[in-house]
Amino acid sequence: MGLIEDARRGVVTEEMRIVAAAEGVTEDFVRRGVADGHIVIPVSPYRKVKICGIGEGLRTKVNASIGTSTDMVDVDMEIEKVRQAERAGADTLMELSTGGDFMEIRRRVVEATTLSVGSVPLYQAFIEAARKHGAVVHMEEDDLFRITAEQAKAGTNFMAIHTGINYETMKRLQNQGRHGGLVSRGGAFMTAWMLHNEKENPLYSEFDYLVEILKEHEVTLSFGNGMRAGAVHDATDRAQIQELLINAELADKAHEQGVQAIIEGPGHIPIDEIQTNVVLQKRVTNRKPFYMLGPLVTDIAPGYDDRVAAIGAALSSSYGADFICYVTPAEHLALPTPEEVYEGVMSSRIAAHVGDMIKLKKRDADLEMGHARRDLDWERQFAVAMNPERARAIRAERMPADTDGCTMCGDYCALKIVGRHFNF
């Protein structure tokens, strides 16, 4: 019996209680959210995971993606990225390796964390086909489902699966074209395979079989966004919307059969289209949890894309996105370092909080910080800060002569000057 079945029968599970306590909502609110498909709680029968609720009425969560590439296979560095992501406060991880021994890398990542760990089984299936047969287009359909089950048994408890790429989606892409091309690795793999083999995407045509596997292993299904825009000029185009409509229908089907479902959203969106994307996504999916990839709101700031994405993520969260995939400063340039993973998570956490200030009216911490600054209470400021360690270090480096103030204002601290005449 899975969480959805329990929720439908009126049973409040331990996982639901943990989420309710962490989020400050009632247990029945969480139960109803799970039953209706508005909230997911990734779990695993194969390992103990830190319980994390994702969805409507809950705090916006942040995912950190890690993983090797064909150019850099350093598993110890990936484990350090796990540590840095956790240190920065990530809620979940995705292990997306494309180089090295996939199962060994994933085993070590899963052993290194209690966070929910996501994956994209399609990557391994296609890359193993390329290694064995010389090209990704020679991937065997059975291998795709076998690898999905193997990754689930290894403790991977949510998966991005590209079900919405089919002949209709490709037709939309071919008819309209793209300014930035097709940037999803999963989308590219599956599109190439379909064109070469003249066959439908097996994740779409054999969706019922896929659901059986995921249900057996209690995997949360995150519907991959293979047609996402890789340039702001491609945002909200026909291919993206076609894929969304297909995923929305399949997500309803998965939920009916007891598999928890998340819908992934597009990656590059100009600011004036973010609200449209969130509202549309929520409307057509019957308010399934929305996992926003970024989004990046301009294409011309490589090296600062964590900040670019934070702008988009804050707006996305405020309009109703539930889950944010971080972006690091190395995006579009290189595989990120552990330090860049840390920076990416912090940027996304700030963005998620800014969104929650609007979406959930969660402003108590900001109010406490305002009072602490008014009172020049530095220890209280550090306690409330999202990153106390960094705030404390910066102040310690440039400690003023008058330790009540700071070196920004020195002798002319506005709070001290006005404090002589007003009692706030």
Automatic annotation (TrEMBL):
[4Fe-4S] cluster binds at residues 406, 409, 413. It comes from the Archaea. Zn(2+) binds at residues 268, 332. Pfam families: ThiC_Rad_SAM (PF01964). It catalyses: 5-amino-1-(5-phospho-beta-D-ribosyl)imidazole + S-adenosyl-L-methionine = 4-amino-2-methyl-5-(phosphooxymethyl)pyrimidine + CO + 5'-deoxyadenosine + formate + L-methionine + 3 H(+). Substrate binds at residues 94, 123, 162, 184-186, 225-228, 264, 291. Keywords: 4Fe-4S, Iron, Iron-sulfur, Lyase, Metal-binding, S-adenosyl-L-methionine, Thiamine biosynthesis, Zinc. Its EC number is 4.1.99.17. Pathway: Cofactor biosynthesis; thiamine diphosphate biosynthesis. Its cofactor is [4Fe-4S] cluster. One of its GO terms (biological process) is thiamine diphosphate biosynthetic process. Binds 1 [4Fe-4S] cluster per subunit. The cluster is coordinated with 3 cysteines and an exchangeable S-adenosyl-L-methionine. GO terms for molecular function: 4 iron, 4 sulfur cluster binding; phosphomethylpyrimidine synthase activity; zinc ion binding. Catalyzes the synthesis of the hydroxymethylpyrimidine phosphate (HMP-P) moiety of thiamine from aminoimidazole ribotide (AIR) in a radical S-adenosyl-L-methionine (SAM)-dependent reaction. PANTHER family: PHOSPHOMETHYLPYRIMIDINE SYNTHASE, CHLOROPLASTIC, THIAMINE BIOSYNTHESIS PROTEIN THIC. Belongs to the ThiC family. This is Phosphomethylpyrimidine synthase. It comes from Methanoculleus formosensis.
